[in-house]
Amino acid sequence: xxxxxxxxxxxxxxxxxxxxxxxxxxxxxxxxxxxxxxxxxxxxxxxxxxxxxxxxxxxxxxxxxxxxxxxxxxxxxxxxxxxxxxxxxxxxxxxxxxxxxxxxxxxxxxxxxxxxxxxxxxxxxxxxxxxxxxxxxxxxxxxxxxxxxxxxxxxxxxxxxxxxxxxxxxxxxxxxxxxxxxxxxxxxxxxxxxxxxxxxxxxxxxxxxxxxxxxxxxxxxxxxxxxxxxxxxxxxxxxxxxxxxxxxxxxxxxxxxxxxxxxxxxxxxxxxxxxxxxxxxxxxxxxxxxxxxxxxxxxxxxxxxxxxxxxxxxxxxxxxxxxxxxxxxxxxxxxxxxxxxxxxxxxxxxxxxxxxxxxxxxxxxxxxxx
Length: 370
What we know:
Layout: E1 2-7, H1 21-33, E2 35-40, E3 48-52, E4 55-59, H2 65-79, E5 84-88, H3 92-104, E6 108-112, H4 131-143, E7 146-149, H5 152-160, E8 166-167, E9 190-195, H6 204-216, E10 221-226, H7 234-241, E11 248-252, H8 256-264, E12 268-271, H9 280-287, E13 292-295, H10 298-303, E14 309-311, H11 316-327, H12 330-346, H13 349-366
Parallel strand pairs: 1-2, 1-5, 2-4, 5-6, 6-7, 7-8, 9-10, 9-12, 10-11, 12-13, 13-14
Antiparallel strand pairs: 3-4
């Protein structure tokens, strides 16, 4: 098959910085068997092409990116026809994929991977905040030949909108991120880790307030916080106000190679997001034998209470209580870790690629898009 993948970015030519690891894992596996062309809407400001993970990357660049992306897909289709177009993320990506597929009369697939279906007005986030976005999503998603999403909460959101979707988690590449057996926690200071960009959606303010509750309860812990700071030091200042300076290490961005040693030392991943389709780091932690406590979003809600512990969004007291509960009961922590690892290893990057390939063949056999 010749496949067009439409992504917002995450496919930097370095293969290490400004990349989304699960994107590369999927691209690499599809490219082993098929002719894969990736159309990145805004990886770099200037249009360019390069090879990555066995695929041809077409960077669209700034300025009328959606129209130029549709045209780029059409031009490549003239060289040799595509069999289908697949958008990872809705919004602009799905608009490009579905419009191009309709023009070329081939099938289209849209994978929901972000905040396309939410409206968080307090933080100006989500694809459904305004009528224009709601209308675009309604038209585009109904025109797609197939819709997929990473976790059951997103499937439920789509169902509430009258849309049927298939659950396809974006799995971890076990060759590059090999599993480690879950292990008992050492006595003394518990090692916590949080991996996410510092931004409003990830809601690190709730995380820090939960940690302050743990300090008051005399829980002995330290935390590594890994992620790009988009809030200009706001979380570091809040940590100082809460008296957490001695407990936290803000690392900023880390590559996958740099992240793994920190993850290997962790006892528990803690997430505090207002919304997630994943989060993908939960899967990486699970592969490493590390369980997750977090707010009830995405995989965390989907896996709780047997493979993760979920608490209400924004409830730092409940988050602190769940962290304390897991750290004080290592049998519980290990049960969560074993169950989580079983899920993550079963639904790894190979599983993701096979599932998408099966869906592609189903659409082509049915003659979708024509």
